[in-house]
């Protein structure tokens, strides 16, 4: 680790993710209910999404008051330092609401518009992933201590295990279901984990060969995208573009391009 700013940002991101993860794990009310809905009746927010974001934004404001923040639940401020934090305080809210274990806290820091630090913690798995630009991707886990991540060697696409997700807006998910239906016979199988950040970290950890989704926001993918890339995966959007709300595609080298071409052929980002 050479850049002292990156080290400082990593320390803060790890502390914020750890504390928010503990709050979510230990503070989940037994009678947790939906507090509000957003883009559609199934796009839900709980009091815990909001509490986790407040904890993270409060910590950042205390440590680095001049930084900007983009938080899913509205904890957004302009900054003057050139650093902006991109936060998903609870990625996988629907899993969390139902008591399913796949959910995470995702904290990324950008410097002059480029993601330089990403931390994703998945408390029910006992795992935390992190990456610093140029420094590789790392995981600490209950299973195997700290280890450097490397995505797996690419299989042919018809033997690739690919994860995806579905947007909350009815027309978008209907189209996504049609694309997935046409994709399944061309792959080993499809997974739908429920946390985009965990999907990208699982790709980094060699547990998936690819991932794609339409309709993601910056907070869903900022940290996971850096972690996947630092583990040797390729990520993008529509051909020649960076990942975006139109399309996010990620894969091991060898799976990424064929998957992106296939999705293009299936019109994955059209209505
Ligand atoms: C969602 C999760 C899910 C993905 C959705 C996201 P949220 O984030 O990442 O896996 O399929 O597109 O919106 O709302 O649980 O933070
Ligand atoms: Ca949400
Ligand atoms: Ca999310
Ligand atoms: Ca969220």
From TrEMBL:
Pathway: Amino-acid biosynthesis; L-histidine biosynthesis; L-histidine from 5-phospho-alpha-D-ribose 1-diphosphate: step 8/9. Mg(2+) 2 binds at residues 90, 220. Pfam families: Inositol_P. GO terms for molecular function: histidinol-phosphatase activity; inositol monophosphate 1-phosphatase activity; metal ion binding. It catalyses: a myo-inositol phosphate + H2O = myo-inositol + phosphate; L-histidinol phosphate + H2O = L-histidinol + phosphate. InterPro entries: IMPase, Inositol_monoP_metal-BS, Inositol_monophosphatase-like, Inositol_monophosphatase_CS. The keyword Magnesium applies. Its cofactor is Mg(2+). GO terms for biological process: inositol metabolic process; phosphatidylinositol phosphate biosynthetic process; signal transduction. Its EC number is 3.1.3.25. It comes from the Bacteria. It is an enzyme of class 3 (hydrolase). Keywords: Hydrolase, Magnesium, Metal-binding. Mg(2+) 1 binds at residues 72, 88, 91. Signal peptide: none annotated. Belongs to the inositol monophosphatase superfamily. Catalyzes the dephosphorylation of histidinol-phosphate to histidinol, the direct precursor of histidine. PANTHER family: INOSITOL MONOPHOSPHATASE (PTHR20854), INOSITOL-1-MONOPHOSPHATASE-RELATED (PTHR20854:SF4). This is Inositol-1-monophosphatase.
């Amino acid at each position: 680790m050479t850049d002292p700013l990156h080290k400082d940002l990593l320390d803060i991101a790890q502390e914020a993710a750890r504390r928010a993860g503990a709050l979510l794990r230990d503070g989940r009310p037994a009678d947790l209910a939906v507090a509000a809905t957003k883009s559609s009746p199934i796009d839900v927010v709980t009091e815990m999404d909001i509490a986790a974001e407040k904890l993270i934004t409060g910590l950042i404001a205390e440590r680095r008051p001049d930084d900007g923040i983009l938080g899913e639940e509205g904890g957004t401020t302009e900054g003057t330092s050139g650093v902006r934090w991109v936060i998903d305080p609870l990625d996988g809210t629907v899993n969390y609401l139902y008591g399913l274990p796949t959910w995470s806290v995702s904290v990324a820091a950008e410097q002059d518009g480029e993601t330089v630090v990403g931390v994703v913690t998945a408390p029910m798995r006992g795992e935390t992933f992190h990456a610093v630009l140029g420094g590789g991707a790392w995981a600490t886990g209950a299973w195997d201590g700290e280890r450097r991540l490397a995505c797996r060697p690419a299989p042919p696409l018809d033997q690739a295990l690919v994860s995806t997700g579905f947007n909350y807006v009815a027309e978008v998910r209907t189209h996504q279901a049609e694309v997935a239906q046409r994709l399944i016979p061309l792959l080993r199988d499809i997974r739908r984990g429920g946390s985009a950040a965990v999907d990208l970290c699982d790709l980094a950890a060699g547990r998936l060969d690819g991932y794609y989704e339409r309709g993601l926001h910056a907070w869903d993918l900022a940290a996971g995208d850096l972690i996947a890339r630092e583990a040797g995966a390729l990520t993008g959007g529509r051909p020649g573009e960076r990942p975006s709300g139109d399309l996010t595609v990620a894969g091991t080298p060898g799976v990424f391009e064929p998957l992106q071409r296939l999705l293009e052929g299936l019109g994955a980002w059209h209505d």
